[in-house]
Amino acid sequence: MDIAADFLLRVLAQFQSPSLAFLLGGILIAALGSKLQIPDAIYQFAVFMLLMRIGLNGGMEIRDADLTDMILPALAAAGIGAGIVLLGLVTLALMPKVKRQDAIATAGLFGAVSASTLGAAMLMLEQDGIAYEAWVPALYPFMDIPALVLAIVLAGMSKAKGRDGPGAAPGAWAIVKDSLRGAALSALLLGLLLGLFTRPERVFESFYDPLFRGLLSVLMLIMGIEAWQRLHELRRVAQWYAVYAALAPIVHGLMAFGVGYLIHLATGFSPGGVVLLAVLASSSSDISGPPTLRAGIPEANPSAYIGASTSVGTPIAIALCIPLFIALAEVVFGL
């Protein structure tokens, strides 16, 4: 009983994080009918800065790291991303009034990764003094790309069988190239390469790192506003999407936490790394995923998969899953 009470207190304590406050604040003012609008250019700049900061830091750390330490977590990330897609498809297929192509797109989006959720988790870990390998955020594409590729390939196979009409899915390599050219992965990979092959420490410490926290709070505010605004889109489709979006981040994150714990036992993977792996799995893509799936699965209804992710999945991943996994790590690892 004492352990449960302590765990609950640890979860509640995480809600004091500024990142969660700005997310909930955005939801609140949107619900109250506020006309506040933040220009899209600011949103794009905030996302770019977030990903460049993550990429630069990861690249600088990888430069001095033992790459063999990354192999098992990278393989696990790829397997988790693909596994989430398959699990989501099977789960949604059991629900009434859910079209197969919509189910595949939704599962693909939840298998992919949210950079903003990752950034919020990194900030909260730093605030709590929980260490993690700086290369862990570089696992982003290892989970993101396999999930998106598998979703689009499955949609193409479904069309080829005549379930949702004629047509052929784009080739797997074409999907990979489109994903790599997307704004999110382009910025992240550019930062990784610059951190790996150049010496960007000075510009990182004087520009990217100091702005990280402030721009992340702006991004959280924008996401809170958008989450509320997209609720009406979710009402147009089966309510089962909302149920799936509410439960999937928790289930996916707990699965990844278990995998991360096994890696910890095998290789000494840090508690913070386990938390970030769980957060990657609990998140759903808000930048690269939607345009990739719009192009790869045009038959799917964006109101279903984007509405489920933005209005339900992302707020739960940030407001509930991050505090939950940090508190779980504190209990499991005795932090």
Radius of gyration: 19 Å
What's the CATH topology label? Answer: Na+/H+ antiporter like fold
Q: Quote the distance from N terminus to C terminus.
A: 19 Å
CATH architecture: Up-down Bundle
Low-confidence stretches: 163-168
- Mean pLDDT across the residues is 83
Tally of individual helices: 15
- Helix-strand pattern, N to C? HHHHHHHHHHHHHHH
**Rough outline:** globular
Question: What structural class do you assign from the helix and strand content?
Answer: mainly alpha
**Total domain count:** 1
Main sheet attributes: strand count, strand direction, barrel closure? none
CATH C-level class: Mainly Alpha
Helix content: over 70%
How would you explain this protein's 3D organization?
- With 335 residues, this protein is an all-alpha fold.
- It has a single domain (17-29, 36-332), classed as Na+/H+ antiporter like fold, CATH 1.20.1530.
- Helices cover 78% and strands 0% of the residues.
- Helix 7 (140-160) crosses helix 8.
- The radius of gyration is 19 Å and the shape is globular.
Any chance you could write out the topology, listing elements then pairs?
Layout: H1 2-13, H2 18-31, H3 40-63, H4 68-93, H5 100-111, H6 115-128, H7 140-160, H8 172-181, H9 183-197, H10 201-229, H11 231-234, H12 240-267, H13 271-282, H14 289-296, H15 302-332
Helix pairs in contact: 1-15, 2-10, 3-9, 3-10, 4-5, 4-7, 4-12, 5-7, 5-15, 6-10, 6-13, 6-15, 7-8, 7-14, 10-15, 12-13, 12-15, 13-15
